[in-house]
Design brief:
The complex is a heterodimer. Chain A is mainly α. Chain A has 11 helices and no strands. Helix content of chain A is 79%, strand content 0%. Helix content of chain B is 65%, strand content 2%. A two-stranded antiparallel sheet of chain B has the order 1-2. The chains are: A mainly alpha, B mainly alpha.
């Protein structure tokens, strides 16, 4: 565990030096602040516009950071040959992958925390309710955990960062379109096509279920049971993806 | 080195002149493009939902914001309403069917700007179907049906639906009773106003309800007496002289007095009943 934490801390220090992190954070904060001005352009729905824009900015820029920083984690270590020095120590590749993951997740959650703080401050200044947005922020953090694991998996698998980014983006998009698969299956009618679509439906991580922003802006309650189950669902995917990433990285020829 | 710096500075200056100069000329030109053409390829909200990649409500917000600027920025162009129903009824509300404001604002633009109350009511019907617990849309639809379409039947129905939704303002009950009166269903309207009078919790509502009950009672009584006068004519071959004769003929159980305790009178020629009491409310 000490090894894992050592890699995690090292990854965190390395990630916070990445300029793209600050660039995306700045964009997100500007967008959250812009929500205040966007609300001036609307007829009604000011609270909705501010809340929706803020939550969407946190989720969108959080995911972008997870993908762009996450994918380069292992590929960069290999390209710069720093992985060789680290792995020369008495450390398994699984430990390395887990440490990398925790370090990046720490970075992303700190990043998301800063964005959330800015958002909550904005809501407080306007006198808008803060409590209802908390489930959405937590589930966004859980989605980031899954996307980070996904990015790390492709980072361990792909030979270049570009490929890793494309694969992760592709799965992120598919993960948000999972809800439409049963509709597609309904159109196809009975047969192999439907079975194949439904198989993909069950196999892909359903990332859209982490999105409770619509419920929050419509004032619907988000039950605690749902939050707990969704957190468990996210944790399950993180474990699966990290195991797959460790396996992929252990089979990678670094000689 | 200095020559190079001067060259770069000159290039920057040239670029700035080009950008600022052309921009100033472009902004001075009147908007000639076809407003509808800009919206021709705006897809249906159901497809945009797929393309929004998990951000359908945010995309709905952005298109809603854009639509408000669009409809306030095209002056009196004839084609500015070409895609109004598409934008509000399909794009924005297709992305987020529970977004109430686009239904309300879309209906408002359709009624006030396009003067198309039927499309406005259709848009509000769509919103009511998607948001059955929201009282604002049937309330608004009732108002447009009454105020603009003068369709009291539909207005009464919208207000009836509004009344059934928790949180609807108490005034909806009065509006419903008023619409029934306007469409000619005086008996039901009297019943509703009597209920409102019973439940009134302030003097203003109590006085209003009492005035309506007073006038409607006269209307209902007069209508009933007119029917009985026809029956009386059939029996006796002449018009009745008072409600006492209707009682004597077995057509009425007791002498009927108006809400102020005065007797109703009959026109000796036409047999039409009327009250000697003045109505409290202005008659249309």
């Amino acid at each position: 565990m000490r090894m894992v934490m050592a890699v995690a801390v090292m990854t965190f220090r390395e990630a916070v030096r990445d300029r793209i992190l600050y660039l995306l954070l700045a964009f997100a904060l500007v967008m959250i602040a812009a929500a205040r001005f966007l609300a001036l352009l609307t007829v009604g729905s000011e609270v909705r516009i501010v809340a929706d824009t803020g939550m969407a900015a946190i989720a969108f820029f959080g995911v972008l950071t997870a993908i762009f920083v996450g994918v380069s984690l292992i590929t960069k270590e290999i390209e710069q040959r720093t992985a060789y020095t680290i792995l020369a120590r008495p450390m398994t590749r699984g430990t390395f992958v887990l440490g990398k993951y925790l370090g990046l997740l720490m970075t992303l959650w700190v990043n998301a925390g800063v964005m959330s703080l800015g958002f909550v401050l904005l809501l407080a200044l306007r006198g808008d309710p803060i409590l209802p947005v908390l489930p959405a922020l937590w589930l966004t953090a859980m989605e980031l955990a899954v996307v980070t694991a996904l990015a790390l998996f492709f980072s361990a698998l792909a030979t270049s960062s570009i490929l890793g980014i494309l694969f992760t983006l592709g799965l992120y998009v598919a993960g948000h379109l999972v809800w439409s698969f049963p509709l597609l299956a309904g159109r196809l009618g009975p047969g192999w096509g439907t079975r194949a679509v439904m198989a993909v439906y069950y196999v892909l991580p359903n990332l859209d279920r982490f999105n409770v922003r619509a419920a929050v802006i419509h004032g619907d309650p988000v039950p605690l049971e749902f939050i707990v189950l969704q957190t468990a669902y996210g944790l399950g995917w993180v474990i699966l993806l990290l195991l797959a990433a460790a396996l992929a990285f252990s089979r990678r020829d670094l000689t | 080195m200095k020559r190079r710096q001067a060259g770069v500075a000159g290039l920057v200056l040239l670029a700035l002149v080009l950008v600022a100069g052309s921009q100033a000329r472009l902004l001075a030109q009147p908007l000639t493009e076809d407003a509808g053409r800009r919206l021709l390829y705006l897809p249906n909200g159901r497809f945009l939902k797929v393309a929004s990649l998990g951000y359908p409500t945010f995309v709905a917000d952005m298109i809603y914001l854009w639509s408000i600027q669009f409809y306030s920025g095209y002056g009196n162009r004839v084609d500015r309403f070409a895609y109004l129903e598409h934008i509000f009824g399909e794009v924005i509300t297709g992305l987020d069917p529970r977004y109430v404001d686009p239904y309300l604002v879309g209906a408002l633009i359709l009624v006030v700007e396009k003067q198309d109350v039927e499309s406005a009511l259709a848009l509000l019907d769509q919103g009511i179907a998607a948001n059955p617990d929201d009282w604002l849309m049937p309330y608004e639809a009732g108002f447009w049906a009454y105020d603009t379409a003068h369709d009291f039947d539909r207005a009464a129905e919208y207000f009836r639906r509004t009344m059934e939704i928790p949180g609807a303002p108490a005034s909806t009950r009065r509006l419903h009773a008023g619409m029934l009166n306007k469409k000619g269903d005086k008996v039901t309207s009297l019943l509703l106003w009597s209920g409102i009078l019973e439940d009134a919790d302030n003097d203003r509502v109590r006085t209003t309800a009492a005035n309506h009950v007073h006038d409607l009672q006269i209307d209902v009584d007069v209508a009933r007496l007119d029917e009985l006068a026809v029956n009386f004519l059939g029996l006796r071959g002449r018009t009745p002289r008072g409600t006492g004769e209707l009682v004597a003929a077995g057509l009425l159980q007791g002498v009927l007095l108006d809400p102020d305790g005065r007797p109703y009178v009959f026109d000796p020629v036409t047999g039409k009943a009327s009250s000697t009491t003045s109505f409290r409310l202005r008659r249309p």
